[in-house]
Automatic annotation (TrEMBL):
Keywords: Aromatic hydrocarbons catabolism, Lyase. Pfam families: FAA_hydrolase (PF01557). This is 4-oxalocrotonate decarboxylase. The keyword Signal does not apply. Residues 86-249 form the Fumarylacetoacetase-like C-terminal domain. InterPro entries: Fumarylacetoacetase-like_C, Fumarylacetoacetase_C_sf, Hydratase-Decarb/MhpD_sf. SUPFAM superfamilies: FAH. It comes from Pseudomonas atacamensis. Signal peptide: none annotated.
Amino acid sequence: MKIQRIAQRLDEAARLAQATLQLSGEDTVTLDEAYQVQRQLIEQRLARGARQVGMKMGFTSRAKMAQMGVSDLIWGRLTSDMWIEEGGSIDLSRYVHPRVEPEVCFLLGKRLQGQVTPLQALAAVEAVAPALEVIDSRYRDFKFSLPDVVADNASSSGFVVGGWQRPDTNLDNLGLVMSFDGRAVEMGSTAAILGAPVRALVAAARLAAQHGEALEPGSLVLAGAATAAVALRPGVAVRCEFQHLGSVAFQTLREE
Ligand code: OOG
Ligand code: MG
């Protein structure tokens, strides 16, 4: 069956770190089918022992929409095997063409589902943290249509979460600098995320509900990148410093 076949193709591309072709011909999918593929893809990871730990929003900033040539919010699922320890190292040979981008992460203390106001969303937050997301499209040349990238779990690949801060930390317009080996590669503000990152949480609750899902207590929500993503290379110390929120870092191993 088509959904199963595409999910398997994308799962294999991720496991082997080998790019696959964009979905076309009989494998072209609608947005609705793309979310079915995504769910199937995640089922396969769960069957291998991973746990679903939350969700991530995509294309919540103009910088990201412009970089990738798409203009709609999407979401993907975060699983435990994507977690990268803060300060830890990753081996780039496990990825196709990884990039990194600055994000903020919410930890939910209460359940959120459906239409909620920003105030209700904030009331469900237990803590907030600076974060970095490692994205890695499984498609050749990092090119895709909106349904393609949704099927590929929104390019999710890894995430690093820094120290948790109080839930009432104001996230609305915090300056940030992402650096490689101490040199700035992207600068921006959390205001780039839908005007205020809490709006990404509101959107996450609404989009999840459209697929019969809720944001459960204990789950993480990545709000989407504040700047364009930057390609990773071996042997680099990656760090993002956020005004009032602290920093988050990891490194990539040198090539053997
Ligand atoms: C898709 C994922 C988008 C974000 O933060 O906007 C995303 C991609 O850019 O490949 O994670
Ligand atoms: Mg992202």
